[in-house]
Design a protein that fits this description.
- Helices cover about 5% and strands about 35% of the residues.
- It is mainly beta and about 240 residues long.
- It has a single domain, classed as Sandwich (Immunoglobulin-like).
Amino acid sequence: MIKKITLIASLFTAFISHAQSTDAAPYCSGDFSGGEFMDVEKYISKVELNTLSNESGDTQFALPHYVYYDNIEATKLQKEETYELKITHDDGVSIHGIAAWIDFNGDEIFEESEKIEQSIFPSGMNPLIYSFTIPANAKLGKTRMRVRIYEDDAYSFSFPTGEDPIVLPCDYDLGEGEVAFDWGETEDYDVEIIAEDDLAVQEIGSNILSVYPNPVKDVLTIENIEENSLIEIYNSLG
């Protein structure tokens, strides 16, 4: 008689979760002051990039309106590949600017040359979609991405007529010392810069099925099984 054993396997992933952080260090502060008299709500409701999709809701993070989502796994971005960053926001008519940066050189500074893109007075443009390419000289490994929305009259209207403000990743200085922007929200995320070879190894390695021991006596262990896989195991008789 031919004996056949059929196993239905489900993948269970164990993990330890922790809350997001409100500390930007070692990067510059992304805080807001909330204004002198009242706090005006300006928020980012969803950020999407490659495998990253974070919906933070239709409200801004608590004052000072900064959050670092270090509890979300870093999405992998390959050198010289082009990606789309999608930013959904509150679409308020008084938004002065939205921008995003990635610290490509890993020096813990969001430089103007590392700005993915910025949008000035973007009401009616929702979601915003920024297309960008990872530089060939980007430093490999985990780094930080920042997404920011702001409103601040003193800063925005300090620029000459007809000249767009430059959206900054941190505080601004109009000659009297650094000052936090009035209203808005800042969200930081981890991303991981990888080489083309790293992606190939990851894709191949993730599909390797491990079955042991061989020969088996009482317990057969099967690892790296995709969810709801059907596995058929035969003995030496067939």
